[in-house]
Every structure is written in structure tokens, then in C-alpha cells.
Amino acid sequence: MSPRENFEFFKDRINWLVPDDPRAGIRLGNLVRVERLEAPLRVAERLGLPAGSEVFHIRRLYKYERETTVSTFDDVYLPAGLFPGLTEEMLRKTSDAVRSLYPFYESHYGLAVAYMEDEGRAVLLNHKQAVFADVPMPYPAISVERRSYTLDGRIVELRIMVSVTDRQKMVQRFGTDPRDLKETKD
């Protein structure tokens, strides 16, 4: 299976936040920032970069189409050396860039994500997040930190997703869903 076919197979399994209310609609993303900056020390460490290395920081906010408040804050950090010439305009022109960055990485930079590692923990929203989520402070959330790797083991991204979980839940699916199997009757 090619990396793109692999992504197509797993795409619904890696974006695993589901609204509690099925009437909330689909999850919509909004690209709000793309900047090149010196990596904060923790980001550099998690990406395996020397202190002072440059990264691209991409911020996206997600909400459900029938809701007015943000449900997930998504901060993505990319090693600048792997993404020469990356601009906000490039991301905005690519329809996948808000839904998923992985096809963008592959089509523009030849970086196919083959492996992801997620670590989750309970956190409190910061003031800005609480305002966007329209909740009081302190307010609990779950933070998932993802590191994504290429087949040859290079770290492509560090992603930190902070999600308000009183309106959505985390669902992970592993293996083949029996409902996806089609029986043939003779």
C-alpha cells in the first residue's frame, strides 16, 4: 500500500474527535496562523532539533458546523529544513491543508507520513482558549501531542491538539471494522 493509499485508509481513524450531538454537523477547520520562528525549547526537543532551530508554526481552530464555539485548538510545528519555501498562501491554496496536512506534506515536499505517536493528558484551557471555547476558567480539556514520522524515521511534525471534551469525545478505531467487510452471497 502506498503512503497516500495508507493515509486514505486511516484518515477517518486518526481524526478521532466526534461530537456528542450528531446534529452538530461536520468538523470545520480554520487556518489562522502560519509563521516561521525559533523553536521553543520543548518543541525543539520533541522534534529532535538543536536549540535555536527554526520551525514553522501552523495554528488551526476547529468547530462543528452548527456550533459557534471552538472545540479544538491545533498547533503544528514543522522543522523548517524539511519545508523550504512554505507559505501561508501555499496552505490556503491546498484544500487538504485545513482538513489534513499529510497529503500536503507528501504532494509538496515528498514527505509521506508512515507512523504517528499520540500522547494524551488532561490539561486546563488557557485564558485565550477559554474565550474561544466560551467556557469559564479554569476549564478541563484533553491535550494530545502527536509526533509524525516518515518511513525512514524522520520526524515530520509535532502537533499539539487541545480539545474541549464536554461537547465531543475521543474515539479510536483499530483493525478492520466488520461493518466495512462486504459478504458475497453465492
From TrEMBL:
Q: Output the Pfam families linked to this UniProt entry.
A: UTRA (PF07702)
In its UniProt entry, what is this protein called?
UTRA domain-containing protein
Q: Which residues form the UbiC transcription regulator-associated domain?
A: 27-169
InterPro entries under this entry? Bact_HTH_transcr_reg, Chorismate_lyase_/UTRA_dom_sf, UTRA
Which species is this record about? Answer: Mesosutterella faecium
PANTHER family from the entry?
MANNOSYL-D-GLYCERATE TRANSPORT/METABOLISM SYSTEM REPRESSOR MNGR-RELATED, MANNOSYL-D-GLYCERATE TRANSPORT_METABOLISM SYSTEM REPRESSOR MNGR-RELATED
Q: What is the lineage of its organism?
A: Bacteria, Pseudomonadati, Pseudomonadota, Betaproteobacteria, Burkholderiales
SMART domains in the record, alphabetically?
UTRA
